[in-house]
Amino acid sequence: MSILKISQNLYLIDLEQKVKGFRNFIGSWVYIGDYTFLVDVGPSATVEELVKSLINLGIKRLDYVLLTHIHLDHAGSIGELIERFPEAKVVCHERAVEHLAKPQNLWEATKKTLGDIAMAYGEMKPVSGKKIIPSFEFQIDGIEAINTPGHAVHHVSYTCDRYLFAGEAGGVFHSFKNETYQRPATPPKLHLEEAIESVDKLLDLGKKQICFGHFGIHKDSKVILERHRKQLFLWKEVIADQVKRSSKNESLIEDCMSKLLTVDKSFASFNHLDDDIREREKYFIKNSIKGYVGYINRTTT
């Protein structure tokens, strides 16, 4: 467990998982101002670390928990956290409300998709519907909720002060050794046009400090989002070409990854990541490529 101080108002809690390479990957943003709120809460497996971190920061109450989406690495501990901070209200996309109140179907689907990783994250406990505010109803001075579908149909980004909490709408980001690594977060079922429209919405906000779900912060959202926008189109072009060329479906995903590493400079820094993080990333990269392959097959036949 580590707490990174970004400013007097903003902290990032690193929620390291008991899975090899799952460090500097999952976090919870803590904002202390006119309102005290979290953005995302991580999996159930690390709820105790999250609560201890909040206590260490002197936080005795929370006004809001803002969820960018309800995948378990972002929202899995929400039921347990709300038991500890019962005064807090949970904000999420309206399509996520039912899944928070009755998370069993979400849990079963996640187990099928992620397997052992889902088991390591742990099962989500339900949240009373009375505690949940759909994002379109969330009207608080100084905080704006923005629908940003793409990574998930129920994805929401938030702005407060000079910060943009983008979840995975700007992809996955990692800063290390004077380098930056960036890739799309495009699991199946990918709706690419919606993902690009969401990036455009965030670009229209102007320059902010962008706070990622995975992982960390960058001082200039416009630079990062413009790079990500180009990356989304580049991956479409490269993967579509590989789909056209591929006769052996078994090697398609590997072929796509190899080609992308040669043409995408932001992604190519993958080769300089620590070994354990690189192994973690391979799993999610392949899933992102599968999202593109499914999209291309759906839209070209």
At a glance:
By secondary structure, the chain is of the alpha/beta class. It contains eleven helices and 14 strands.
Describe the structure.
By secondary structure, the protein is an alpha/beta fold. It has a single domain, classed as Metallo-beta-lactamase, Chain A (4-Layer Sandwich), CATH 3.60.15. Helices cover 40% and strands 20% of the residues. It contains eleven helices and 14 strands. The strands form three sheets. It has a seven-stranded mixed beta sheet, covered by helices on one side. It has a five-stranded mixed beta sheet with strand order 8-9-10-13-14, with helices on one face. A hairpin with a 3-residue loop joins β13 and β14 (216-218). It is globular and about 55 Å long. The N and C termini lie far apart (48 Å).
Bulk shape: globular
Average pLDDT confidence is 96
Structural class: alpha/beta
User: What is the string of helix and strand elements?
Assistant: EEEEHEHHEHHHEEEEEEHEEHHHH
Gap from first CA to last CA: 48 Å
Strand count, sense and barrel status of the largest sheet are:
7 strands, mixed
Rg, rounded, reads 18 Å
Helicity, as a percent range: 40-55%
Figure out the total of helices. Answer: 11
The CATH C-level name is: Alpha Beta
**Runs with pLDDT <50, length 5+?**
none
The CATH level-2 architecture is identified as 4-Layer Sandwich
